[in-house]
Structure formats: structure tokens, C-alpha cells
Sequence to fold (346 residues):
Amino acid sequence: MRLKTLLFAALANLSAMTAHAAGLKFIQVPADAAGPSIDAAMWSPCAGPPGEVKIKGFLLPAVPDCPIAGEKLPLVIISHGYGGWYFGHHDTAEALADAGFVVVAINHPQANHADMSRANGLGVLRQRPLDIKRTIDFMVGASAKVDPQRVGFYGFSQGGYTGLIVGGANPDFNKLPPRCSDPTAIGCPPAGQPKPARRELPPETLTHDPRVKAIVVADPLSVVFQSAGSMKDVTVPLQLWSSQFGGDAISPADVKRLAGLLPQAPDFHIVPNAVHFSFLTPCPPEDARKLSPACIDASGFDRIAFHKTFNADVIAFFRKHLVEDQGKNCPSLATKQRKHRCNRRQ
Fold:
């Protein structure tokens, strides 16, 4: 989809849902030898009263710079899809923060709605997992409120691909469509000029991170993971979501095939009547279809209702694998104000 339409949809998403107002803070992972700086938004449990923050003309349920309530909290990193940004799944981030998690959603550098200068080609696919590692490094070093033993990940589309790599997958980039099938892609010759010959790519050594103990992926880019060998090292608990109809180059058949290749059966969900963009934060009901394809669902699909159940399932999965299974520091996951209880799923 086009960058402009995705940006409009992402901005529209900000006013779509009501939720408890988690703490919201903007942070930046500093540039280093491994890559440029990473802009991020952090949601966290907040003991203050609910409020709203205005961002680019839209109201978001949040308390700006609210002190983090709790100690040794589990951390969840969110990775967006192609052309996305750190607010593309803000309702899920808010729900997780309200349930006692610190959540950091990043803008992948030079591959997000505001800067697509390096969004095409293999470079970004190689860099994305390293962005996640650098973000975890930063959060573990910068905040004593985060428990480094309880780190989770959520990713959508290319963000789902990113999570699979972080969890141990090894892609075969030869399965990707030719990079210059789109003549407008960065670094490709203009239409009418010869395209570069396709060459076989060597196996990749990409960034895996064993600190990530639980992973949720929705409609992941799966075409590069179509052999048992590519998935044999993914042993982390995995919740896998697929839309029924897919879209934006994501095939439900590829996602289903991926589920069968995992060495341990995932918590696999196929969402009836959903399209690929149904996993994005719901758009406002008024004029949603005039804004972007990212706001358009299949006839009869209720994205707002779906996200309520989706967020509850994601929280339950992370709570099981980052809280209950670890069995320590449980009281820190709840605040008296929110009346959450230890070891109890939503």
C-alpha cells in the first residue's frame, strides 16, 4: 500500500478506541555501531487517574510521562509492518500496559511511515531483528523497573517476520519475489530499463535473542520460512495469528504452512472474515473507508469487537509465559488501583 494512505490510517487509528489510560512516554534508543537511533513509544502501568493526550490532532487515552507503577515488570516489544509506525497497534499496547506490562513500540529506522528511504530490499529485513535486540538492551540498561528475565515480543506482518527471526528462525531470502518486480523500489532501474539478474543468496546469519521468552505474531511475512530447517530452532512459546483472507502480499496459506513447520505446536488462531489490516488498531467508524485501504475490513467484520478479544488473548498468552510460568515477583504485576490479581488471566 502507499505510504500516504498508511500514514492517514495510522493517524486515524489514534482516536478509535477507549481504554484505561496507561502511562505514555516517548523514548529514543541511541545510535551506535550497530545502527542509527530508534524512536519509540513506551506504555507502562500508571497509578494516576485516566487522561488523554493530543498527538497530531488526535486524542489518545494516556497519561504523559506517568511514573511506572510496579517493580521488575515484564517487557513487551512491538514491531510494526511495512510502512507502519509505533502507534499502529496502540490499543494492544495500552491493554498490555493496563495489565501490568511495560510495552515499547519502535519505529524501525528508515523503514517507517515518516522515513521509507531504506524500507525496500534485503537490508531492512536483516536489520529489523537487530533493532529489537538494541531496544531490549536499552530498556534493560535504562530502567530498573524492567525484569530482564521476562521479555516478550509482538509483531505484525514484517514485524511478525522480525519476531520469528528473534525467536530463532532462519529465513531463505531466495523465496522472496524479485526485489525489482516493482520498478519504484529504492535502488531499482526505472520502468523500461533492464532489471538486474536474480542471483542465489547465501544463507543468512541474523540476530536471534534468547532473552525473548514468549512471542506473538500476526499475519507474518512467511514466504521465507517454508522448510522445516528454517524453523527448527524456534522453541520459544509462540502465539500465531492469521487472517482468513490475507492481503498486502501476505498469504494465509503460507502462514498455515508455517504453523505446521514449528517444532512445537503454536497457539494458532485463524480469524474468520479478517483481512491483513484487520490487525491494525481500529479506525474511527466515521469516514473510515475514505481514508485508506488499511481501514477497510471485509463486509460484516467488526474490528473493534475483534480487538477486544484479540487483546485479551494476547494478554493471557504473555501472562501465562512471562508471569505464571516464571512464578516470581508476581505481586509487582498488579497495582491496587487497577485491582489486577496475580496469576489470573483476563
Remarks:
- The longest strand covers residues 146-156.
- Residues 1-19, 329-346 have pLDDT under 50 and may be disordered.
- The chain has eight helices and ten strands.
- The first helix runs from residue 3 to 13.
